[in-house]
Design brief:
The chain has about 550 residues and is α+β, with helices and mostly antiparallel strands. Helices cover about 50% and strands about 10% of the residues. Strands 1, 2, 3, 4, 5, 6 and 7 form a 7-stranded antiparallel beta sheet that branches. A 3-stranded antiparallel beta sheet has the order 8-10-11, with helices on one face.
């Protein structure tokens, strides 16, 4: 779009600080504005950026001056991706060719400044910083591997027959189109989290302690008394953090976010995550890399990743929640009766203790090894607002749902993403009368189709002159996800998600907080919609009974 100076509004912030970052997307960037609206969440801050740049791909003298100044001030030290001198020389050669046209491009910048989370306990601060590290590593390291493994872009000869070529083309466009364009991603957590420290090491000693290799494993209050410790903390946090610069997916670009979602919208989200799951399905080598660089236990609500306090206080949290909600309304209406009935059910009265007793068992059952049969890569935080859907006006353009925020990605069962998404995003009335089963089945069909496409493509690369009829018959076998196994994983995920919600959110939830958050699209439905919460409690109550029996039977078998 061609612009002029009048397009910039005085209310917007104009700065030069981010030019080194923006130059990765737009080498000829001149300046930018930060609109007043920002996305501020518990673990990151996001900003829409309107960048002003030349139509030429070569940076201007002014841009290079600003970048050099930023580097001098420590904003881009030792960054080999900013070849300022070479770019300046190239720009001078082109200066006499023609006058430049100034254009405007919208981008999105996600930033994490470690110092912004100094108020958190070390356990919670560490989780925020690890989220950043995981997402940057996903975009820089893992996404290219997924694409190379599934696109056929790994230097194989393209000598497949026509049908196979069609399958490869379909797989290529589908996988790529579900991921955002990332222009630059980087982090610096030096002195805070060692590069080889596992994501799930929630017991990592606080770096703010004088003796951070000592015996103190209680990191909730890890800062020693005294000014020296505070100075050490401030010094370690200074200039630490990172950023991710992405394409803009705003409504003006044909995308939207929403919650709750209709069944159709949810099915589009589930189809997208099925492609992600299929991209690493059955690939033990790739999964080991994912486990090493991201997490061996993917998921924002994974027990090993949470603050131990959540589980310790789970029973108390549930008892308090139940007391606050059991008598809600008091008007005798139909809604009130439903609420009172489910919370007064004997098994539900004990639900906190039951979930607590089963927490370790359920988490273990949901944490596969890289070589396990149904292990794959999971998104880890697959809520409605982590998916951009194409608007109605762009469906004819064949745009796909785009997944964002891979900060909790790692190894897991795909059903963990499915379970979280459905409870987070879909209203109970849309899950009744077979609605939930249709969504799950739609995901399973999409997963099976994607996995089988990938298997066919990989087999085609191994075909040789000795390939006989017997091998051909084996090639035609279709992989399926046994529904009994799939539903077991789905129900385990629901139980595990309730454990997370109980310990993390329901400890302080009240009818008033539900009402206040009722329109908060980024909040899970079961923490802002009473009907959704009670329906989920009833469902998990049934699922938990099955797993309690399963656990007892396994323990009895071990005794004999």
């Amino acid at each position: 779009m061609i612009i002029n100076d009048s397009c910039f509004h005085p209310a917007a912030t104009i700065s030069q600080e981010l030019l080194p970052i923006l130059s990765h997307a737009l080498p000829s960037v001149i300046s930018y504005t930060l609109p007043s609206e920002r996305v501020v969440q518990g673990n990151a801050e996001g900003s829409r950026i309107v960048a002003r740049h030349s139509s030429s791909s070569t940076p201007s003298e002014g841009t290079l001056d600003a970048i050099e100044d930023a580097i001098t001030r420590g904003k881009g030290d030792d960054d080999p991706r900013l070849p300022v001198t070479a770019a300046r020389e190239e720009g001078r050669e082109n200066d006499n060719n023609s006058s430049e046209t100034i254009e405007e491009t919208e981008l999105f910048l996600k930033r994490v400044a470690a110092s912004s989370y100094a108020h958190k306990s070390w356990t919670d601060m560490r989780r925020t910083l690890v989220y950043l590290r995981t997402e940057v590593r996903f975009y820089n390291e893992i996404a290219p591997l997924l694409l190379a493994a599934n696109d056929g872009s790994n230097n194989h000869d393209d000598d497949d027959d026509d049908d196979d070529e069609d399958d490869v083309a379909t797989r290529t466009t589908t996988l790529r189109n579900h991921l955002p364009v990332v222009h630059h991603a980087d982090y610096d957590l030096t002195g805070l989290i060692p590069e080889d420290c596992p994501t799930t090491d929630a017991e990592q000693a606080s770096p703010f302690l004088k003796n951070n290799g000592g015996d103190n494993n209680n990191n909730d209050d890890a800062i020693d008394d005294g000014n020296d410790m505070e100075l050490r903390k401030n010094r370690l946090l200074q200039n630490k953090g990172g950023h991710i610069l992405l394409q803009s997916l705003s409504p003006s670009h044909g995308y939207f976010q929403d919650s709750p979602l209709s069944p159709f919208q949810s099915s589009k989200c589930l189809a997208a995550v099925a492609e992600l799951h299929a991209s690493a399905w059955g690939d033990e080598v790739l999964l080991r890399t994912i486990g090493d660089r991201l997490s061996t236990a993917g998921g924002s609500y994974q027990l090993s990743f949470r603050n131990p306090r959540e589980l310790r206080e789970l029973v108390e949290s549930w008892d308090g929640f139940r007391a606050r909600f059991a008598t809600i309304g008091g008007g005798g209406g139909e809604g009130d009766v439903v609420v009172v009935d489910i919370l007064e059910k004997e098994s539900v009265v004990r639900l906190g203790r039951r979930v607590y007793d089963m927490a370790e068992y359920v988490s273990k059952e949901l944490t596969p090894e890289a070589g396990d049969e149904y292990a794959t890569m999971v998104h880890g935080d697959y809520k409605a607002m982590n998916v951009f859907l194409p608007s109605e006006s762009t469906r004819e353009g064949n745009k796909d749902a785009i997944m964002i925020d891979f900060s909790c990605a790692g190894i897991g069962y795909g059903m963990s993403d499915v379970g979280m998404h459905i409870v987070h995003a879909v209203l109970p009335r849309d899950l009744d009368n077979g609605g939930e089963e249709r969504l799950v089945e739609g995901y399973l069909v999409a997963l099976e189709n994607a996995v089988n496409r990938r298997r066919r493509r990989r087999r085609s690369k191994r075909i040789d002159d000795d390939y006989d009829g017997e091998g051909k018959e084996e090639e035609e076998e279709r992989w399926t996800y046994p529904r009994e196994v799939a539903m077991r994983h789905y129900r385990l995920a629901c139980v595990d998600y309730l454990r997370f919600i109980m310990g993390r959110f329901w400890r302080s939830a009240t009818p008033e907080s539900f009402e206040k958050k009722s329109e908060s699209k980024n909040t899970t439905l079961i923490n802002r919609n009473l009907e959704a919460a009670m329906a989920f409690i009833a469902k998990v109550d049934r699922y938990l009974e099955v797993f309690e029996k399963e656990k007892r039977e396994r323990e009895m078998m071990m005794m004999h």
